[in-house]
Amino acid sequence: MYSDTHFHFKILKEDEEWTRKSVLQKMSQNSCAFALDIGTDCDDLASRQELFEATFAQMQGDGPDAKACADSCKKFVYFTAGIWPDPDSIKNRASCVETLKKNILAARASDDPFRKKVCALGECGLDHHWNPSGVDNRSQDDFDQAMVAAERELFMMQLQLAKELELPVIVHSRDAFQETLDCVKESGYGEKCVIHCYSYGLEEAKAFLEAGCVISFSGSATYAKKSQLEEKLALLRYVPQDRLLVETDAPYLAPVPLRGKPNNPTYIEHTYKFIAQTRGIEVEKLCQIVDQNAQKFFLVPIL
Q1: Are 173 and 125 in contact (CB under 8 A)?
Q2: Among 203, 183, 208, which residue's Cα sits nearest to residue 128?
Q3: How far apart are CA 289 and CA 292, in angstroms?
Q4: Which residues are CB-neighbours of 71 under 8 A, at least 6 positions away?
Q5: What confidence tens digit (pLDDT) does each residue in 38-65 have?
Q6: What pTM value is reported for the model?
Q7: How confident is the model at residue 140 (pLDDT cuts 50, 70, 90)?
Q8: 220-244 core/surface letters (b: 16 or more CB in 10 A; e: else)
Q9: C-alpha distances in angstroms, 13 versus 53, 165, 229?
């Protein structure tokens, strides 16, 4: 139940209500089948894996039942590695992509089965949302024509690396629909791309689907102004069953009725319920669909 195909464990918000340990415990109690921790920096893979291992160790210290819980979590957790298009990574794209490749290959060569669990490249892509005071700290002044071209090159380099390593790709695309679509088509790798945290409309979804992409919905799927509600519902109904994933993008984009709170993977049930109701199916059926799609797309066994 309630697989989460995109979240950021390292930056989950810890408070009196939730810790990373309690989040994993709840996911295990909910019989989570697949949980994908997402990379954003060329050199963050090992540190993210170490954080999970430290959290598992904390869980195991709570007794026999906790050890079984930690063991179950270790089975459903997987990783990606990729470069989010921040200005420094864009400027140093050649060395960053080389470091990324080195770290993915090192994980694959590890004797530790848990360290080998890198099943996709990303998140990577294009972001043209300008909000200097926001969490992404992006300013249009930093992105002249040369920087925009370099951002595109960084994305294309990662698409090519994914093809070389035979890994699917987690695509970040914000306010950059046409540019993203052009890159995906140019790569010839659309059938192995998932457009994560989908934020465009129905016509754009049709174009991505025609290019072979998978569409992933986050908690933002539960947001809609009255004037946009019918279009949002039509979009959620349109995406073919075999091209659909569900995610949190935690700690961002908590679904209604928790919008505005720091998000975590345990809140994903609200997104599943909203999408299932919209598509006219049972929640359990949607969970089965997402698990089957994740197994096929990421080429991993599902619990």
Answers
A1: yes
A2: 183
A3: 5
A4: none
A5: 999 999 999 999 999 999 999 987 776 7
A6: 0.96
A7: confident
A8: bbbebeeeeeeebbebbeebeeebb
A9: 18, 33, 30
